[in-house]
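User: Just a sanity check before I run the rest of the batch. Below are the structure tokens for the first item. I only need the designed sequence back.
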């Protein structure tokens, strides 16, 4: 779930990007100076990890257990291997569908799927930054654009997913699912913003053994333009 999103702030030394008048740059200005676009293959590896990564699979399992505890949907019953398996398969299918729709949109409009941490300012300003950058993302030239992939994927997936769920089709349920999906995207970015800080508090061995991706965390870290 955090694949290639834990972008560290540039070191605060004489080589760090600074404005011509020596005033500190904003996080977006720093990213624009250090930005390098991803290939389409790298973007799909990001999508793959959002579906099959350890963090994503763990979240799917928790979601399935919560739905089972609340007996949602009630037509699948509860307290047994088969109902949990159905809910886990449904949750995985929704994630697979959402992320592949999002990838298709990004391939068309050249969005960058990564979340670039702020890592500076107080807690409130960082939460605000994370929320804004859920709906405004970088594109392949480093500038900011609306997150069309989020809007389209989270708006269409709940309606398509109703085709395999036992409840009758409902517009209200579809729109509610879209709202929940976008809200969870904000929560995910807030998590990505603060998780590296929290992780550093763990003992060294525990810190190194916690995995949220199958890939090297540095694999998609942006490098300075022209490198």
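Assistant: Here's the designed sequence for the first item:
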């Amino acid at each position: 779930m955090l694949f290639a999103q834990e972008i560290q702030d540039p070191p605060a030394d004489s080589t760090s990007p600074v404005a011509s008048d020596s005033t500190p740059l904003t996080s977006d200005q720093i990213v624009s100076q250090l930005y390098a676009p991803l290939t389409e293959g790298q973007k799909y590896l990001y999508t793959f990890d959002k579906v099959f990564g350890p963090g994503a699979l763990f979240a799917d399992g928790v979601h399935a257990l919560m739905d089972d505890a609340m007996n949602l949907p009630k037509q699948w019953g509860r307290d047994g291997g088969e109902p949990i398996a159905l809910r886990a398969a449904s949750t995985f299918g929704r994630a697979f569908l959402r992320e592949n729709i999002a990838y298709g949109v990004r391939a068309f409009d050249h969005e960058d799927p990564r979340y670039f941490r702020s890592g500076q300012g107080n807690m409130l300003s960082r939460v605000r930054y994370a929320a804004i950058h859920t709906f405004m993302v970088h594109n392949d030239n480093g500038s900011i654009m609306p997150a069309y992939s989020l809007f389209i994927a989270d708006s269409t997936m709940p309606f398509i997913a109703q085709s395999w769920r036992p409840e009758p089709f409902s517009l209200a349920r579809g729109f509610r699912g879209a709202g929940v999906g976008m809200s969870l995207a904000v929560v995910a970015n807030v998590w990505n913003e603060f998780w590296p800080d929290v992780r550093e508090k763990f003992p060294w061995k525990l810190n190194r053994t916690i995995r949220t991706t199958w890939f090297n965390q540095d694999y998609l870290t942006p490098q300075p333009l022209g490198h």
